[in-house]
Design brief:
Helix content of chain B: 25-40%
Strand order of the largest sheet of chain A: 1-2
Oligomer: heterodimer
Largest sheet of chain A: 2 strands, antiparallel
Structural class of chain B: alpha/beta
CATH architecture of chain B: 3-Layer(aba) Sandwich
Number of domains of chain A: 3
CATH class of chain B: Alpha Beta
Number of strands of chain B: 11
Strand content of chain B: 5-15%
Strand content of chain A: under 5%
Radius of gyration of chain A: 23 Å
Largest sheet of chain B: 9 strands, mixed
Shape of chain A: globular
Distance between the termini of chain B: 31 Å
Chain lengths: 422, 403
């Protein structure tokens, strides 16, 4: 599996320029806030709010387009699958107007470098990233007894403290109480954004940190940045985390209801390697249950559209930009906008979430539209042979043979059960 | 009884599907009821004290702080009875209340007592006593006793039915379409290809039947998907389209809408701001639903519920964190409205759940059970067994629906 020997590749904007890092984006955001304050005072006639979000929405779509383009052409598709998995685990959603600015950068900076690294590093990168600190409101969480808290009368916000344990590490049944949620929220006070963009946009403010040692799940941590890092590392290495991550990976990569032995194997690898994600990725590929024949999982809309484009060698020709953006629009209609799920839990990861009536009909409509755009001379039987090979069902072959045209046959191939599933 | 579905099944068995190449004509089975029951799931934990402010409570203004609403000033709340009010954004709901078509429930919550959104929604939708105790949705399990389990009379306004409507009984789903519709001939071939994949086959046939009905019922620009900019925020296309489907004489009788965006941890706002805007979208959507239903509104009950409430006091960033008790709304021409139902225990520190949350004094299942019984005629025996197992001690609320 040479595909996963290094960090994931980085997407490149379709126009060949380069993306901004979070440090620059933080500076832009604070500049925007100053512009907005100025506009409120002086009424200069511009609308900084509207302009800022227009630009940011476009930047987000540009990030997504680059991500799709990489998925269509990469020679390391499994590395991309890992990126998609982890980005749907450590969720920051572009549906949140404060996070949208940083969502693309989050995946590039907190997820891609770590897909074959240590889990604890990914947790720390995610929890300290401006995107996460804004999305789950920690940037504004202030220790009520800290200097800043007493001065401004501000206090805790539990959001990141809770989701860090419930969703990202221990799991909802991983053994923590409401007091632990408050303890984790206290531990994370002062984790916020750097005003000048230094340190890739992250800063720790001691004057916002809740004073005094904090006890979390029986362990005591000092009121410092290092104390917080130690607490996060502890939950990242907890046996409950090993179980939670093993289960989640098995659901994604093996089956909606994964065999217990597969989960146990992954859990063991997690524990024995201290959360080595490279070892976990290998364990998935080597799991015989991941290769069992039979009706597989429904592809998510992004996986489905990506598989279709890879099958047909798209995008190609002179309007590749439009083709990439068309793929993005299609997955939205099928119910999924990557990096923009409705809640921090991420997009669902089981077949039934993507196989409802409207979703299935939309996929067929898309398949027909894509088929019609392919040259009428394309040999659909050869495409099927090459792209689906021995998994092609006789009923699909028959339907394709009876199709009105080659584009119709391709559309049938894209609509077929074996192509909807993986 | 011969229905289009049974004809199709016979044809599929005989391998004679050529009729699919002719335009689909629709022959519905007789629908066993003309009553409509709609559930709106408010995902994200809607703040009950924001939508239904108890402005007459002596502790209201002091506990709510920056989030407190007032009967005076800019954006005054809508007073209901001198004690409870409605959020300023809920103008249309207020009009329904005045017309005795809206009832309000406070200090209400599912039996879930922790504070995870996702487990909380699981309990709300499955109707179980705890998260993941049950695998399917209570509304799905209620379809069989309602006689609506044939796949065409229960509708999710979503790409895929949410857990609430998932389970052994069949339901369909619908969203405004934008891709060009494939030809009947093409769909006939796809359908044949799906014969060996029961999941895809069932979804496709359900979608096609509804799509045909949608085309017939509403040749209307309002049915188009919202523009790229509107997407998430604008709920009117969903409520307009769903309402029109529900209005059809032989259309769905049960529907589920999903409206998220209530997880207001940060700068929640009071009379204006983030939550006020979201509530305005919801209020608009509900008015659209009423309009789209037309005369069928008089036979309709709409219940709006969320997974749990939020903390009574603002948090450190002028928002609220996850709580316990909250509010639920009941709307519709069939509703016996014009009242607030609450076992109100005040907002003093000692009255709060865990010293921070609204107390859960009424079980949401009691409301759901009462509605299923009075609006849809589900027998109590079914409510206590199949629909809400282990809920015998939770008595259905009564007097919810006009006789």
């Amino acid at each position: 599996m040479s595909q996963i020997n290094t960090a994931a590749d980085q997407p490149v904007p379709l126009d060949g320029s380069s993306f901004k890092n979070s440090g620059d984006l933080v500076v832009e955001m604070f500049q925007y806030q100053r512009d907005r304050a100025m506009e409120k005072r002086n009424g200069t006639g511009t609308d900084p709010v509207k302009m800022f979000f227009k630009v940011k929405a476009q930047e987000f779509l540009d990030e997504l387009a680059a991500r799709y383009a990489l998925g269509f052409t990469t020679d390391r598709p499994f590395a991309e699958r890992l990126v998609w998995f982890w980005s749907n685990h450590f969720v920051v959603s572009a549906q949140n107007p404060r996070a949208i600015t940083f969502v693309g950068a989050f995946e590039r900076e907190a997820i891609r470098p770590h897909i074959t690294g240590k889990f604890e590093d990914m947790v720390l990168a995610a929890a300290s990233h401006p995107a996460m600190l804004l999305y789950l409101d920690n940037a504004q969480s202030i220790g009520p007894h800290s200097r800043a808290g007493e001065f401004a009368g501000k206090g805790l916000n539990e959001n990141l403290g809770r989701e860090l344990m419930e969703l990202y590490t221990l799991g909802v049944d991983g053994g923590y109480t409401q007091d632990d949620v408050i303890a984790m929220a206290k531990i994370l006070t002062g984790w916020s954004l750097s005003r000048n963009g230094e340190n890739n946009g992250f800063a720790y403010y001691d004057n916002r940190h809740e004073p005094g040692d904090v006890t979390l799940r029986g362990r005591t941590y000092p009121p410092t940045l290092d104390g917080g890092i130690a607490a996060i590392k502890d939950v990242a290495h907890d046996p409950a985390t090993a179980r939670h991550i093993a289960h989640k990976m098995a659901i994604h990569f093996i089956a909606d209801e994964p065999p217990a032995e597969s989960v146990a194997r992954l859990e063991k690898v997690f524990k024995e390697t201290g959360g080595d994600l490279h070892a976990l990725a290998h364990a998935i590929v080597e799991d015989p249950n991941a290769w069992k024949p039979g009706p597989g999982k429904m592809r998510t809309p992004v996986e489905y559209v990506t598989a279709g484009y890879r099958l047909l060698d798209l995008p190609k020709g002179d309007n590749t930009d439009k083709q990439v953006r068309g793929a993005l629009a299609a997955t939205r209609l099928m119910g999924q906008t990557p990096l923009a799920p409705p809640a921090p839990k991420g997009w669902p990861d089981t077949s039934d979430a993507w196989s409802g009536p409207d979703a299935v009909l939309t996929r067929i409509e898309w398949a027909q539209q894509v088929g019609q755009r392919m040259p009428a001379t394309l040999d659909s039987a050869a495409v099927a042979e090459m792209g689906v090979g021995p998994l092609l069902r006789p009923s699909t072959k028959t339907a394709m043979a009876q199709a009105e045209s080659q584009p119709d046959a391709l559309a049938l191939l894209l609509s077929s059960p074996e192509f909807q599933r993986r | 009884m011969t229905t289009r579905r049974s004809i199709l099944q016979t044809m599929a068995a005989a391998g004679a599907l050529s009729l699919w190449d002719t335009p689909i004509r629709y022959a519905f089975a007789n629908v066993p009821t003309d009553r409509r029951f709609v559930v709106v799931i408010l995902r994200g934990a809607l703040d009950g004290l924001a939508i239904v402010p108890p402005h007459g409570d002596k502790d209201y203004a002091s506990t709510r702080g920056v989030l407190a609403l007032s009967t005076s000033g800019t954006n005054p709340l809508h007073d209901l009875d001198g004690f409870f009010g409605l959020h300023p954004s809920l103008t249309n709901v207020k009009a329904m209340y005045d017309a005795k078509e809206a009832a309000i429930f406070h200090n209400i919550c599912s039996p879930y007592r922790d504070r995870s959104h996702f487990d909380g929604q699981n309990v709300l939708e499955t109707g179980g006593t705890g998260p993941h105790v049950l695998q399917d949705g209570w509304l799905n399990r209620a379809l069989t006793p309602m006689g609506l389990a044939d796949g065409q009379h229960a509708l999710a306004v979503a790409q895929t039915p949410p857990l609430l409507l998932s389970g052994p009984a069949r339901a369909t789903s619908w969203m405004p379409e934008t891709l060009p519709a494939p030809t009947e001939a093409f769909l006939a071939r796809v359908r044949r290809m799906y014969a060996s994949d029961p999941v895809l086959a069932a979804s496709l046939s359900s979608a096609m039947e509804l799509q045909t009905q949608a085309h017939a019922a509403m040749d209307d620009p309002a049915m188009k998907k919202p523009g790229a900019g509107a997407g998430y925020a604008d709920l009117t296309p969903l409520f307009s389209g769903g309402g029109k489907l529900l209005a059809a004489a032989d259309g769905p009788r049960v529907a589920v809408f999903d409206a998220g965006g209530w997880d207001t941890h940060f700068n929640q706002g009071a009379g204006d701001g983030q939550l006020a805007r979201r509530l305005q979208a919801l209020d608009q959507g509900l008015d659209t639903l009423k309009t789209s239903l037309g005369p069928a509104w008089s036979k309709t009950t709409v219940v709006l519920a969320t997974e749990f409430g939020r903390t009574v006091h603002p948090n450190g960033s002028n928002g609220t964190d996850h709580g316990t008790g909250g509010a639920a709304l009941l709307l519709g021409g069939a509703v016996k409205g014009g009242a607030v139902h609450a076992e109100w225990t005040g907002l003093s520190a000692s009255a709060l759940q865990d010293g921070r949350d609204q107390p859960p004094r009424t079980d949401l299942r009691a409301l759901f059970k009462g509605l299923l019984a009075e609006q849809m005629g589900v027998p109590v025996s079914a409510l206590n067994a199949a629909v809400f197992p282990d809920s015998g001690a939770v008595k259905p609320l009564s007097g919810l629906i006009r006789a």
